[in-house]
Amino acid sequence: MEAGLPERKKLGELLVEAGLIDELQLAVALGEQARWGNRLGETLVHLGYLTEAELVRALSRTYGIPGVHLDGKQIEPEVLALLAAEVAEEYRCIPLFKKPVSGGEVLFLGMAHPEDLRIVDDVSFRAGLPVQPVVVGPVQLDNAIAAFYRGEGPCPIQGDESAADLAEAPVPDGDTAPVFSDLQEIVSESLGEVGF
Q1: Which of 30, 35, 89, 188 has its CA 20 to 30 A from that of 196?
Q2: What is the pairing mode between strands 104-111 and 168-169?
């Protein structure tokens, strides 16, 4: 790590500090994670210690990346066509919408693991657009891939009922995915920082 940069806390530590889980639940989840190889956040949701909405909020804060919930939402076919179904399934991601930013378009990509820059780079190359990762809960993401790419299950997406408690902000015309109320501010800040 470079000198002068603060060390990023691990997700488990942040969840304990926030009072969303306790030390014992973290220890159990870490044991399950080691046994089955799943990600910690997904393990916590699977064990019932955390809701998917709480996980999305925590990941959003941890990585400084906006988060969305997809209940009742549609994705434009032209946006879905930017990424082949096989790639979406392999990478567990889904293109959500395009938005004009500083004279060019940016693709907002729903991901369960937005920290994986390899996926961001590859999808950007494939789509021919800069990509802004957006956190989506793993259950909603899997449901979205099944519904939009394979035509399975309800469309629009149904997922974690606790996500209904999340506040949404209006999305400008042309955008097709709703967002947490702070997404527009976070998007503006993060895009400004990376120079898109």
Answers
A1: 89
A2: unpaired
Contacts of residue 57, Cβ cutoff 8 Å, sequence gap at least 6: 67, 166, 180
Structure tokens at 119: 């996926």
Distance in angstroms (rounded) separating the CA atoms of residues 15 and 21: 6
Q: Which residue has the tokens 């693991």?
A: 113
pTM of the predicted structure, to 2 decimals:
0.71
Q: Are 95 and 82 in contact (CB under 8 A)?
A: yes
Cis peptide before 156 (omega within 30 of 0): yes
What DSSP designation does 162 have?
G
Q: Give the span between the Cα atoms of 182 and 179, in whole angstroms.
A: 8
- The pLDDT tens digits for 56-114 are 988 888 888 888 888 778 889 999 999 999 999 999 999 999 998 888 999 999 998 88
Q: How confident is the model at residue 172 (pLDDT cuts 50, 70, 90)?
A: very low
Instruction: Give residue 154's pLDDT.
Output: 59
Spatial CA neighbour of 45 closest among 134, 57, 35:
57
SS3 (DSSP) at 35: helix
Query: Pairing state of beta strands 93-101 and 104-111?
Result: antiparallel
